[in-house]
Amino acid sequence: FTVLRHPLNRAHRAFCALEQGALPGDQRRQLARLYGITLPAPGQSFTDPAERRTAFLAFLRFLKRNLAGQTSFKTDPAWASQSALLHGFATLQSPDLILREDRLAEGMAFLAAEFGLPTPPPLPPRSAEDALLDTIRDGELEDAARDAYARDYQSLGFYPLR
Could you tell me if 57 and 140 are in contact, meaning their C-beta atoms sit under 8 angstroms apart? Predict the structure, then answer.
């Protein structure tokens, strides 16, 4: 089985990894110079929600170009289209079950019942990355995510989280 995450939440988690230094310094400088994605120093975090929102919006606009093959950056699996990832899985073996993160508890209960296992324990609370996203989420970010991940929204049935 596999679990799908809403594209906006997924992009924000990838953005948080970049914020914490997931890319070498030269690539961080390229993101800032070429795409306007200004990140704090590695290991630091944004202290101003407005700065986080501005940088994340620039990242979403970068993703639209990156996923269309219009940047010099390789598409990282952390931010790749889930449709493309599923397509890649299918060349080897299609997943028997595709669950959505927002319905994971019900999906895991179903899966456990299929195998005669006890219902799994409750899932941990939402991640810190998702809580940070909640502080900046707005219609413009939702629209930018839909533009970047149009294929996921169309083929996997995602909707805005507003």
Answer: yes
Beta pairing partners, 99? 3
Separation in Å, CA 99 to CA 49, 119, 147: 31, 16, 23
Q: Say if residues 6 and 133 touch (Cβ distance below 8 Å).
A: no
Encode pLDDT of 97-113 as tens digits: 999 999 999 999 999 99
Contact 155, 83 (CB under 8 A): yes
CB 36 within 8 A of CB 58: yes
Q: What is the pLDDT of residues 65-99, one digit of tens each?
A: 999 999 999 999 999 999 999 999 888 888 889 99
Write down the pLDDT at residue 162: 64
| Cα angle 21-26-27, degrees, rounded to a multiple of 5 | 65
**Best CA proximity match to 98, nearest among 134, 152, 151:** 152
Q: How many CA atoms lie within 13 A of 56 on its CB side?
A: 31
Q: What is the pTM of this model?
A: 0.91
